[in-house]
Amino acid sequence: MSDRTNLLRRALPVGGLLLALLVPFYLSGFWLLLGVMVMAAAIGAIGLNLLVGTAGQLSLAHAFFLAVGAYAYCWFAGAPGPGGGGITLTGLELPPLLAAVLAVATAGAAGLLFSPVAGRVRGLYLGLASLALVFLGQHLLFNLSSVTGGFNGRSVPELSVLGFELTGRDPELTLLGVPVGDRERQWYVALVCVVVAYVFARRVLAGRPGRALVLMRENETAAGVVGVPVSRYKAAAFVLSSMYAGLAGVLLAQAFQRVVPEYFGLVLSVEYLAMIVIGGLGSVTGAVLGAAFVTGLPSLLSHYSGLLTFLAEPGTSGVDPAVAARLVFGVAIVAVILLEQGGLVALGRRLRPAPRPPAGAAGQGEPGPPPDPASHPVLPPQDMTTASS
Amino acid sequence: MTRLLELLAVGLSLGMLYALIAMGFVIIYKGTRVVNFAQGSLLALGAYAVARIAPSAGFWAAAAAGIVITVAGALLIRFLLARARGHDHMALAIATIGVDVVLTTELTRRIGPDVLSMLDPWGAATVRLGGVTVPQARIAAMAVAVVVLGLLLALFRYTGWGVAMRAASADAEAASLMGIRLGRVATVSWMIGGALAAGAGVFMSTFPSAGLDSHSSTIALAAIPAIILGGLDSTHGAIVGGVTVGMAKALTAGYGSELGFLGAGFGDVMPYVLMVAVLMWRPSGLFGTREFIRV
Amino acid sequence: MFVTSATRLGTAVAALSLVAVGCSSKATETADSSSGIKTGPGVSADTITLGALTDLSGVFGAQGKIIVQGNQLYLDKINAAGGICDRKVELVVKDHGTDVQKAVSLYAETEPEVLGYVQMLGSPITSALDTDITDARTLTVATAWSSTLLKNPEMIVMGNTYDVETVNGVDHLAKEEGLKSGDVLGHIYFEGDYGNSALQGSTYAAGKLGLKLEGIQVKATDTDLTAQVTTLKSRGAKAVVLSVGPRQTASVAGVAASLGYDVPLLANTPAFDPSLLSTSAKSALEKNLSVMTSIAPFSSTEKGPREVAAALPEKFPDTQPNSFVNLGYASALVYAEVLEKACANGDLTREGVNAAFRQLKNVDTGGLTSALDFSATGRQPSRQTYVTKVDSSVPGGLALQGPATESETAEGYTSAG
Fold first, then answer.
1. How far is CA A84 from CA A264, B11, C275, in A?
2. What CATH number should be reported for the domain holding residue C349?
């Protein structure tokens, strides 16, 4: 009996992956794009979760690191030439794959540059200080126009290897009678990235560094005493998280085909924070679920608004799908923190039937992760200041 | 020279507004250790209530009603958060972001295209002080900030709540063991914070601003550098921080063409630059309580 | 052993799915040929579907809503008269809330089912979707007037862009107010393509007229513009151009009045909203503010604006009128002209629609805008601008000061793009 549950546990990821590989053969461009955005967001959220959920360092600067990844890619891979509004763009015209790697490295370097502040400033002060990066970042995006294209943004070169576009349409490709265009290819690229990012994060958390980060979060002094190089680990968490954000930025840039500065604002940072809270602080799987929820919800509500008769037609007064999505988003954040501290992951675990009935669990399609080593959020034993009498 | 003087006066007038906003954040933080990210939408809620009630009831009655409504809103948040007993402050701060999203969405929908006027008694009137012009509304804001600061100092010193608050903010666990009712401290802090939000909301929508519109709640974000500069748990720090941010914004905007090399619109970024610089020097702001780690 | 079982299971799933792919609906391209008229995406035998990608819930929600109402009013009129090409015209409205990611996803969602877009609001949105619009060839009305929009062959700009608008405005100001060579002209503008387009115009006009330009950039979150006005006053600016939002306009007017700084103010289209007339800045606005615009004000007595004024209260009685209804109405009118032309050409595919669009050399909107010429990419559809004055006694708050005109100064001007 336990053989069978074990088998299922192993077969599920394989089956899920195969299913993901097949999706582009069935779904339209809209769904594929949504999937790419969800996967990119998942990567960014995993990164933020390493920093906030696991290492316990609040950051509202994630939008900045996403921007660094996206724009660095455009600059490394892009061609110099005239941009809009009389701006002359610069660019290195490196091979796109190399540019992507460099962009991720650049985001990591930006994280390293900020880590002295993170090493010195703590807790909520750090969260609020990191806001500065978002505002400074947007100022730079608007003003460093030879790199960023200024307010016009910059068009994104396709990711390609030896002339084969991994995210574009050239050369044309048809598999089993289904044309594999840009959205299909982006899906596969994002899938590879998200799988690698997921597995890597799980490995990091399960190993020594993960345990050290959790210990640092719970008690920094104790961690120092038992020999954890605290400031080095703090910096490393910042760098790793920024690199994840950078990769998410590169992928989002591919999906957008043009990056604009307005996107990388505070709202984006807040959305990423919401993803990891809703998904479950400290859990890699949670980050993925949270990303799917926050990124997918507005599009789903809007797409199925015809079926949801309680929503108003856009343009009339009343609650239209976009307003509804925002309200659900806000309520979900509050509800998770008040009701289910472990987020969607904990909810899923609670809903999952006990492992005894063998066939039932498979039908649910639950990801069924082994218990995360670090899935318990920051919970000091008791917190007197906020407790009511 | 007169231009510098004028700009400093402008900065002071702008700074008074930030100070008032910052004080709301600080009071709530001091009493509960929660950074209330919903403060921006509470400002807008207060101003919205005033704008809707003033045409029929007059400004002062509307202001009173606005304060009551905002305090009620703040208390609602306070009791919501209390349900999450045992959570850390980071999680609670994030929860207030959720509240902010909900409240802002609904207010945006209600305000629509309008720029709502407060119908306040100050209007666009100004006072000339030693060669510079200051709007009366901002003088009123300054008076409110100073009076509230004085009241708070008196409260801290002479009332049981004040002692409880100081004890709670120094060491919550010990205070609780000494029989201090932290729940009451939290309640009163949220009430004062809510009332301050209503006041700040009104002054953010009076002259020289045009009125309340659907973008208004973002102004609370501009006060965040002020809070950090002064220290999250320092009321007079909030005033110093607010005025510093106001001056920094006014001066960088006024001398924008001389500072052109920093990029257009640097005035909006300047407070954040100052904030990070101060934090590198003093990690808990200028007047904030330092965290000590005891081994 | 588990591993091999898992592998076996995986192989089975893979084999099954390969069979399944054969049945994928995406594998077969459906080719459809109907009688007479060539059709493509968004056009069926009895309907033409147009999209509106707008902001109804975000920061520009209010403007978006009223433009949608304008679109709807005209399409109702067309449909009541039998539609276009024997087809009803349907509008699919999607709300992006000025969120770039949501807009990109909504575009991908709606693009396959619409012919084009009768409205796309928000300059970050149009910038982000620039490439997609060109690739998919969805003819789109940009609900903005940035000069960068002119480069895109699939973009409809309703009138002249902010730079030409500003050149015309500054020229008008110089004539009316007697600005002389050497005078200082102030310009407060938003960060982004709106402000920058306008700045290009004021820079050009100042150069031509020998004025000294003093520009100050602000953000949408700045609502107390005392520092900016104080600075312009101390620099001795004789007039101020405003390329900002309504709240900033009111703040500038109010502060200037309180400082006794009595100079003419000149605003671009988005810088004014009639609700400002209920604020304390009302008298200052009435005294000094003129608005330059490609769209006739709501109170205009021409045929088009009268039509709108008659239709609006019937269908949307709660809407406070402003010139954005006219913009929505005129956009739908232009789009309908394009579709009529494409129908006459017998080609309602996207290529056919674009070809028809470029054949329109003189679209008469009944005085909602000046006559529009769309025959070339990169060229201003019109170089004439309306001058309006603030007047609280008329609906919409703006009164026309005469027909739209092009200034001499603007004649030599071409947008940098």
1. 20, 36, 34
2. 3.40.50.2300
CB pairs under 8 A between A and B: 186
Quick check: C249 pLDDT over 60? yes
Residues C306 and C288 in one domain: no
Q: Which domain holds residue C252?
A: 162-293+388-411
pLDDT at residue C32, rounded to an integer = 47
* Per-residue model confidence (pLDDT) at position B128: 82
pLDDT the model gives residue A182: 83
Whole-number pLDDT of residue C1: 44
Greater confidence (A1 vs C203) lies with C203
B118, part of any domain: yes
Which among C58, C218, C276 has CB closest to B210? Answer: C276
**C340 within domain boundaries:** yes
In a domain, A386, yes or no: no
Q: What angle do CA B209, B211, B215 make, to 5 degrees?
A: 90
Q: Which of A202, A350, A347 is nearest to A282 (CA)?
A: A202
Does residue A345 surpass a pLDDT of 60?
yes
Task: Determine whether the interchain pair B35/A338 forms a contact, defined as Cβ–Cβ distance below 8 Å.
Answer: no
Domain span at residue A188 reads 9-376
Contact criterion met (CB below 8 Å) for C283 and C162: no
Q: Is some CB atom of chain A closer than 8 A to the CB atom of C144? A: no
Alpha helices in C149-242 (DSSP H): 162-177, 193-209, 226-234
Q: Which residues of B118-144 are buried (b: 16+ CB within 10 A; e: fewer)?
A: bbbebbbebeeeeebbbbbbbbbbbeb
Whether B159 is in a domain gets the answer yes
> Is the pLDDT reported for residue A316 higher than 70?
no
Q: Do A386 and B87 touch (CB under 8 A)?
A: yes
What is chain B's mean pLDDT, rounded?
85
Structural domain contains residue A383: no
* Two structure tokens written together for A375: 């899935």
- Transcribe C306-342 into DSSP letters: HHHHHHHHHH-TTPPP-HHHHHHHHHHHHHHHHHHHH
* Least confident range of A64-73, B131-140, C7-16: C7-16
Percent of chain C with pLDDT over 70: 91
CB-based contact, B176 to chain C, within 8 Å: no
- Greater confidence (C34 vs C181) lies with C181
Q: Is residue C376 part of a domain?
A: yes
Domain residues for the domain of B60 are 2-220
Structural domain count of chain A: 1
| For residue A152, pLDDT beyond 80 | yes
Contact B198, B20 (CB under 8 A): no
CB contact under 8 A, B268 and A326: no
- Classified as helix, coil or strand, B251 is helix
Number of domains in chain C: 2
ipTM of the complex: 0.87
C96, part of any domain = yes
pLDDT tens-digit profile of B51-87? 999 999 999 999 999 999 999 999 999 998 888 766 6
Length of chain B: 295
Cα–Cα dist B213/B104, whole Å: 11
Place of tokens 């893979």: C14
Contacts of C148 (CB under 8 A, 6+ apart): A84, A85, A152, C127, C193, C197, C417
Residue C27 lies in a domain: no
Handedness of CA C382, C384, C389, C395 (dihedral sign): negative
- List all residues of chain C from 38 to 77 with a beta carbon under 8 Å from chain B: 57-59, 61-63, 65-66
Q: What is the CATH number of the domain that holds A186?
A: 1.10.3470
pLDDT band at A355 (very low <50, low <70, confident <90, very high): low
> Which structure tokens are listed for C199?
């700045």
Surface-to-core class of residue A72, CB atoms within 10 Å of its CB (0-12 exposed, 13-18 middle, 19+ buried): buried
Average pLDDT over every residue of C314-328: 89
- Reply yes or no on whether the pLDDT at A361 is more than 60: no
Classify residue B269: in a domain, yes or no.
no
Same domain membership, residue C288 and residue C204: yes
